[in-house]
Specification:
alpha+beta, T-fold, 2 domains, 9-stranded mixed β-sheet, binds adenosine-5'-diphosphate, binds magnesium ion
C-alpha cells in the first residue's frame, strides 16, 4: 500500500504554505509508529497539541483493541477462546467484525477475517517467516472460514466455532482507525486535514489553493505508490473529493526465498500469497474501513470478479495495476479523476 501524499506539496500551494504558517502558526504534521506502521496526521487548520493528542490516543486505542499480536486485545481474547466460549468485546470491535463479515460474504470468502492461522503460519514480517509445507498449509486452511465467526449483538460477544481458529483484522483495522481519526477531527471543528495511516489515506474537507479570501476549494491530489519503485515514488495521481484512498500491493510486506517473492495478502483458495495477476489495487470510497477491506478483497479476487464486486458498492472506485504494467480503472468515477504519470505503465479502457 503506502500511497505518497502529494496534497500540499503540489506546485502552487507549496509557496503559499509558509506564509500561511506565519499567519496562524499551526503545528506541523505529527507522526507516530502505531498499528505496525508510520501514522501521520496533518491538521491544516486548528492543529493544536490537544487535537493531535486526541487523534493519536484514539488510534492507539484501536490498535490495542484490534491487534492480533497484543495480549489482551479483543482479537487475542476471541482467539484464545476459539471453540471454547463467546467473549465480550467492545462495541466498535463488533462493528468492524460485521464489516469484515459483510465483505467476506460479498467476496465469496476471498477476503476472510478468520485468516489468522494462515497469517501465523507464514509469519511474514516476523522473525519466523517461512514457506510452509503443503500439509501445514492444508491444516491452516481448514481453519479459515468466516462462517464460523458468530456475533451476538445483544450480548456484545464474538465467538469462533472451532479450536485453533483465529481472527486477523490486519486488512481492515487501519481503515477503521482512519475513519475514527477523521470523525474526531471533524468533531473538533477542523475543516481541512489528511490522515495517513501507513498509506491508508483519509481526507477531511477539501484542499484549499490560493491565499486567504482569494483561495479556492480544490480536490485533494494523491500520488499512488508505484508498486515497482521505492516508497514514495508514485506512478499516477488521483484527485478525490472527501473520500478515503487505500492501496493493497505486493510490495508492502514480503520476504524473498530462492529468488521468489512471497507477499502478505493470502489466498483463501490455496493458502499462498494471492496471485491474481496484480501488483496493486487502490480503492477510493467514502469510508476508509470499506476502502481497506475492498482493496484487500479486490487484490485477492483479481480484475474480473473484483470490478463486479465494486459495482455493488455505491460511490467506490478502483485502480488495478497488472503484472504486465497495464492499468485499468473500475467502479464509480464521479468523484475521482486518475492521471497516469509514468510511461512504464499503460492505461487500458
Ligand atoms: P496492508 O496491511 O499493507 O495495509 P492490506 O490491507 O491488504 O494491506 O492487509 C493485509 C493484511 O491483511 C495481512 O497482513 C494480513 O494480516 C491480512 N490478510 C491477508 N490475507 C487476507 C485475506 N485474504 N483476507 C483478509 N485479511 C487478509
Ligand atoms: Mg486492506
Amino acid at each position: 500500500m503506502n500511497v505518497f501524499l502529494k496534497t500540499a506539496f503540489s506546485a502552487g500551494i507549496c509557496l503559499l504554505l509558509p506564509l500561511f504558517s506565519v499567519w496562524s502558526a499551526p503545528l506541523s504534521p505529527q507522526s507516530e509508529f502505531v498499528l505496525n506502521t508510520v501514522c501521520t496526521v496533518n491538521l491544516f487548520e486548528g492543529g493544536t497539541r490537544g487535537r493531535y493528542a486526541a487523534v493519536f490516543t484514539r488510534i492507539r486505542e484501536i490498535d490495542r483493541m484490534m491487534s492480533a499480536y497484543q495480549e489482551g486485545s479483543d482479537t487475542d481474547l476471541v482467539n484464545r477462546n476459539a471453540g471454547i466460549a463467546p467473549v465480550k468485546v467492545h462495541r466498535e470491535f463488533l462493528f468492524v467484525l460485521e464489516k469484515a463479515l459483510h465483505y467476506a460474504a460479498l467476496s465469496g470468502g476471498a477476503f476472510d477475517p478468520t485468516i489468522g492461522p494462515l497469517v501465523r503460519l507464514w509469519g511474514i514480517g516476523t522473525e519466523e517467516e517461512q514457506v510452509p509445507r503443503a500439509d501445514e498449509l492444508e491444516q491452516a486452511l481448514s481453519l479459515v472460514d468466516y462462517r464460523d465467526l458468530k456475533i451476538d449483538r445483544e450480548r456484545g460477544t464474538a465467538f469462533l466455532a472451532r479450536r485453533g481458529q483465529a481472527l486477523d483484522l490486519g486488512a481492515v483495522a487501519k481503515g477503521y482507525a482512519a475513519d475514527e481519526a477523521a470523525r474526531i477531527i471533524r468533531k473538533a471543528g477542523v475543516k481541512r486535514a489528511v490522515v495517513d495511516l501507513g498509506g491508508n489515506i483519509m481526507m477531511v474537507g477539501s484542499r484549499r489553493s490560493g491565499f486567504f479570501i482569494f483561495g479556492k476549494e480544490k480536490p485533494w491530489r494523491i500520488g499512488i505508490q508505484d508498486p515497482l519503485e521505492e516508497r514514495g515514488a508514485y506512478f499516477g495521481i488521483l484527485q478525490v473529493r472527501g473520500q478515503s484512498v487505500v492501496t493493497s500491493g505486493v510490495y508492502e510486506r514480503y520476504f524473498e526465498k530462492n529468488g521468489r517473492r512471497y507477499h502478505h495478502i493470502l489466498s483463501t483458495a490455496n493458502g499462498c500469497p494471492a496471485a491474481a495477476g496484480l501488483l496493486s489495487v487502490t480503492v477510493a470510497a467514502d469510508s476508509s474501513t470499506d476502502a481497506d477491506a475492498l482493496s484487500t478483497a479486490l487484490f485477492c479476487l483479481g480484475y474480473e470478479k473484483g470490478s463486479a464486486l465494486l459495482d455493488s458498492v455505491p460511490g467506490a472506485g478502483a485502480i488495478f495495476v497488472f503484472e504486465d504494467h497495464s492499468v485499468k480503472l473500475a467502479g464509480a468515477r464521479d468523484r475521482s479523476v486518475f492521471t497516469l504519470e509514468n510511461s512504464r505503465y499503460r492505461l487500458l479502457e
